[in-house]
């Protein structure tokens, strides 16, 4: 019986977008399903009061927490997924992240596939995402088969001062690896204007390499690739070891579709929920387990003798403590800068500390904003469940002690000595699931893993998972580049083993392609624009 499509991709974020991009030239009939719509292109994209306000562009989503409390997660359901709002800092995982690591709080497991196998796909991912950086500055980085596609963003004056002082104290601050469409030497050639509304705003200019602009839109230039927005997948139907139907609701209407291949990329939480409510791919009992999301905290550091007028701040990272310090014989994590925090964001970040608007404005004027990321460890008790009420999010933080040690150590030994005297800090809670991973791990044993090494479900012949669900661990780096690299790796397997097509190479991910939102038109089936209704209009 003929199928409706050759490939159905559920989710248009980093993983799903990379699969669509990599398979687009095969000529196969590909459908991307996205439950959200295009994020509107409007002045509110750059309005801090809206972005950091009660609503912003956040999804109307509610989960049950581990103690029965209601969690209102900060998640975004749009074409491009959570990458529409991300900070566009794309580090590779370190080679040691693929090996077993002993942390103060326990063990981070080894991966069944090592860094060397991922390296060429990291190169392709860096190219398609237009990543900026300087090889050799970061002492913890793995080997690379070529340079970054674009040179690093330079530091503005105040950040250069901080970087110089850190270097004078023996550290190795490096330029952050940013996925933005900018020509540093001739900035008029590309759309990025290095503005103060990048992290965590959507880009009104489509100059941020998010999954929509860098992956989905280029894929849609191919006549065989189609995107349906407003299409929420409710259930996968398995018969005879294959997914035979994808049941969804599109613009309020129930539908049922079939495809030779089904690729799930809903994010680690929603992917687990879909598999659980479908009752598929879970003979191991591992679906939803081992959820990780990183330990993440921020410090606003003030030196009242030195205001910080920086516009584009997210240019510096410090990885000297990735594997520990002389006083800490275990991994600590990464330090990076965030975008320059607007006072409205500061009031939200420190709301529990009684920050007034006057104080928030003072912090904005003087602060350099640091972000700390440490690994949390996979634990089968940290899991996503599906109940008659929806998602139950059973997550309790672990490995926090070393995370706090990193913050204290960096503050006391490297910030205070260079003149910072006042600090505000906050650690992100359950609602912050930006770096979600681990709920459908890949492995070599179907009894203990959900996916095989190609990220195919052990139990189902035509079901693949390509978001961060597959990851056994995620080190302490931002996960998006690893998601894209793995999705390209899986897509090459699909090209060869399913479609008898050739593999992929760096030339398939060019730097010169136009990738503004205007380049794709015909294959987007979205609601018709209604005058005055911004939410109906594609960006």
From TrEMBL:
Transmembrane segments: none
Cofactor: FAD
Domain Glucose-methanol-choline oxidoreductase C-terminal: 331-487
Keyword Oxidoreductase among UniProt keywords: yes
Pfam families xref list: FAD_binding_2, GMC_oxred_C, GMC_oxred_N
Ranges of residues in domain FAD-dependent oxidoreductase 2 FAD-binding: 6-37
GO molecular function, one term: flavin adenine dinucleotide binding
Keyword vocabulary terms for this entry: FAD, Flavoprotein, Oxidoreductase
Location of the Glucose-methanol-choline oxidoreductase N-terminal domain: 194-294
Family: Belongs to the GMC oxidoreductase family.
Name of the protein: GMC family oxidoreductase
Originating species: Neolewinella litorea
């Amino acid at each position: 019986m003929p199928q409706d499509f050759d490939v159905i991709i559920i989710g248009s974020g980093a993983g799903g977008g990379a699969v669509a991009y990599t398979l687009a030239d095969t000529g196969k009939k590909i459908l991307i399903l996205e439950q959200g719509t295009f994020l509107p292109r409007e002045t509110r994209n750059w309005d801090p009061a809206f972005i950091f306000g009660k609503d912003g562009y956040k999804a109307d989503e509610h989960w049950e927490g581990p103690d029965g409390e209601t969690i209102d997660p900060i998640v975004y359901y749009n074409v491009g997924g959570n990458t529409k709002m991300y900070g566009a800092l794309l580090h590779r995982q370190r080679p040691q992240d693929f090996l077993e690591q002993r942390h103060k709080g326990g063990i981070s497991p080894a991966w069944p596939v090592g860094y060397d196998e991922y390296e060429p796909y990291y190169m392709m991912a860096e190219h398609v995402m237009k990543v900026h950086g300087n090889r050799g500055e970061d002492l913890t980085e793995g080997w690379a088969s070529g340079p970054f596609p674009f040179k690093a963003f330079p530091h503005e004056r105040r950040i250069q001062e901080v970087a110089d002082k850190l270097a004078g104290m023996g550290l190795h601050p490096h330029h952050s690896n940013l996925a933005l469409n900018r020509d540093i030497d001739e900035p008029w050639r590309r759309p990025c204007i290095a503005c103060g509304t990048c992290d965590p705003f959507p880009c009104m200019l489509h100059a941020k390499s998010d999954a929509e602009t860098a992956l989905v839109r280029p894929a849609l230039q191919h006549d065989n690739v189609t995107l349906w927005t407003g299409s929420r997948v409710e259930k996968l139907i398995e018969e005879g070891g294959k997914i035979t139907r994808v049941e969804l609701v599109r613009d309020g209407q129930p539908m049922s579709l079939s495809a030779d291949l089904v690729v799930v990329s809903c994010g680690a939480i929603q992917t687990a929920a879909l598999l659980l409510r479908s009752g598929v791919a879970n003979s191991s009992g591992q679906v939803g387990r081992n959820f990780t999301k990183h330990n993440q905290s921020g410090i606003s550091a003030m030196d009242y003798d030195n205001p910080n007028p920086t516009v584009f701040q997210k240019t510096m990272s410090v990885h000297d403590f990735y594997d520990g310090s002389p006083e800490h014989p275990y991994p600590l994590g990464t330090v990076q800068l965030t975008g320059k925090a607007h006072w409205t964001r500061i009031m939200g970040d420190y709301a529990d500390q009684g920050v007034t608007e006057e104080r928030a404005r003072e912090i904005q004027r003087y602060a350099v904003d640091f972000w700390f990321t440490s690994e949390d460890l996979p634990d089968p008790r940290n899991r996503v469940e599906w109940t008659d009420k929806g998602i139950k999010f059973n997550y309790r933080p672990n490995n926090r002690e070393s995370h706090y040690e990193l913050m204290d150590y960096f503050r006391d030994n490297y910030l205070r000595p260079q003149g910072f005297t006042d600090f505000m800090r906050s650690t992100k809670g359950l609602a912050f699931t930006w770096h979600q991973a681990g709920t459908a791990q890949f492995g070599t044993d179907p009894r203990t893993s959900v996916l095989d090494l190609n990220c195919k479900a052990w139990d189902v012949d035509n079901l693949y998972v390509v978001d961060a669900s597959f990851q056994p661990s995620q080190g302490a780096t931002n996960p998006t580049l690893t998601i894209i690299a793995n999705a390209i790796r899986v897509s090459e397997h699909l090209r060869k083993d399913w479609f008898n097509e050739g593999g992929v190479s760096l030339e398939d991910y060019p730097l010169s392609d136009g990738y503004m939102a205007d380049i794709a038109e015909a294959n987007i089936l979205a609601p018709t624009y209604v005058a005055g209704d911004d939410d109906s209009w594609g960006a």
